[in-house]
């Protein structure tokens, strides 16, 4: 049971994150905001993470899962273990700046109840003047993108509304998470935060970006993504759209949705894994239909308002340029 005097819990899902945990936890110890609870949910790590946490941080609430159940399940486990009104989620490959939590809590305290979550100012680990993520946005190509990625931080110094926060460093109202039933564990990993954000939007919630809440983030490397990543992202993109988007909007933007899936398969150079992602959607159809029915019953946002919230632009080179590049490289 959480101390009733606490206002916020920080939940950290961990899977083989021993290389990152010391710096992540050290940064939390240096927060200017206090007190708060730290909950680490270990996803069956095999790198000594559990032994390290038991030896070096015995005061942290550690929850051990028997295997890697994915980010969504680990996050939900941590959320259920905390009964504070605010719950922050934080990736292991982050270093929160000293005023990170203070800025988030102060902002949420001043926001009306319909603001369900706050996005942090996530900067690159190598250079704090370059943005990694200033809130996420969704396109009609079923692509989820980081707002401000690789742009100067000086362009993102104003608090503003965003489509959805990145769960790698975000603050949520417990009431929001309860109403939305937390993350959808069928996503396992990738896009579960966008799914939550979209479902919240449909129920009238909004989200804000807090520039003073800075977090350095390592994120993905620059190499080609793994086959597992391509398979999950392909499936999850389709599940995200089919669960929550009204049929007439899916029909209206069908060409863009198809374009986005083709682009992703070619850009990642793993068309077979993308195809496996399509096929792996089939066992999820009963879940999608059940959730779709429930989501539509609780929806308060009109289809036209939703259409306006999802972007039509595609922040990547055109597909023809990608094909030409691939053809030239082969030649």
How many domains? The number is 2
Average pLDDT: 93
Strand content: 15-25%
* Shape, per Cα inertia axes: globular
What is the CATH C-level name of the largest domain? Alpha Beta
Helix/strand layout:
Blueprint: E1 8-14, H1 21-29, E2 37-43, H2 49-56, E3 61-65, H3 71-81, E4 86-90, E5 94-96, H4 100-110, E6 115-124, E7 131-133, E8 136-138, E9 144-146, E10 160-162, E11 169-173, H5 174-179, H6 192-202, E12 206-217, H7 227-244, H8 247-252, H9 254-267, H10 271-279, H11 285-298, H12 303-309, H13 319-330
Helix pairs in contact: 7-10, 7-11, 9-10
Question: What would you note in describing this structure?
Answer:
This protein has 331 residues and is an alpha/beta fold. 41% of the residues lie in helices and 20% in strands. It has 13 helices and twelve strands. The strands form two sheets. Strands 1, 2, 3, 4, 5, 6, 7, 10, 11 and 12 form a ten-stranded mixed β-sheet that branches. A hairpin with a 5-residue loop joins strand 8 and strand 9. The longest helix is centred in the C-terminal third of the chain and has 18 residues, at 227-244. The model has no long low-confidence stretch (mean pLDDT 93).
């Amino acid at each position: 049971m959480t101390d009733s005097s606490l206002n916020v819990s920080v939940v950290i899902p961990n899977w083989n994150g021993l290389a990152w945990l010391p710096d992540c936890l050290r940064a939390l110890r240096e927060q200017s905001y206090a007190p708060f609870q730290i909950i680490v949910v270990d996803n069956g790590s095999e790198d000594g993470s559990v032994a390290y946490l038991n030896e070096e941080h015995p005061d942290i609430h550690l929850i051990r899962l028997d295997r890697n159940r994915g980010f969504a399940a680990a996050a939900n486990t941590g959320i259920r273990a905390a009964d504070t009104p605010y719950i922050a989620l934080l990736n292991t490959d982050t270093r929160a700046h000293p005023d990170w939590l203070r800025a988030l809590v102060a902002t949420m305290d001043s926001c009306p109840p319909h603001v369900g979550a706050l996005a942090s100012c996530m900067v690159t680990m190598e250079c704090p003047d370059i943005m990694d993520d200033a809130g996420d946005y969704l396109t009609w190509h079923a692509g989820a993108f980081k707002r401000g990625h690789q742009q100067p931080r000086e362009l993102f110094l104003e608090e503003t509304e965003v489509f959805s926060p990145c769960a790698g460093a975000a603050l949520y109202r417990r009431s929001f998470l309860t109403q939305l039933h937390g993350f959808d564990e069928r996503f396992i990993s990738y896009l579960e935060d966008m799914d939550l954000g979209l479902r919240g939007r449909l129920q009238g919630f909004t989200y804000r970006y807090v520039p003073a809440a800075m977090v350095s983030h390592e994120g993905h490397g620059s190499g080609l993504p793994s086959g597992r990543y391509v398979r999950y992202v392909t499936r999850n993109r389709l599940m995200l759209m089919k669960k929550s988007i009204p049929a007439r909007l899916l029909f209206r933007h069908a060409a863009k949705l198809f374009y986005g899936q083709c682009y992703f398969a070619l850009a990642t150079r793993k068309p077979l894994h993308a195809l496996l992602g399509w096929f792996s959607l089939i066992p999820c159809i009963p879940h999608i239909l059940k959730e779709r029915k429930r989501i539509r019953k609780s929806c308060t946002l009109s289809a036209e308002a939703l259409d306006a919230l999802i972007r039509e632009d595609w922040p990547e080179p055109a597909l023809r340029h990608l094909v030409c590049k691939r053809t030239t490289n082969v030649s």
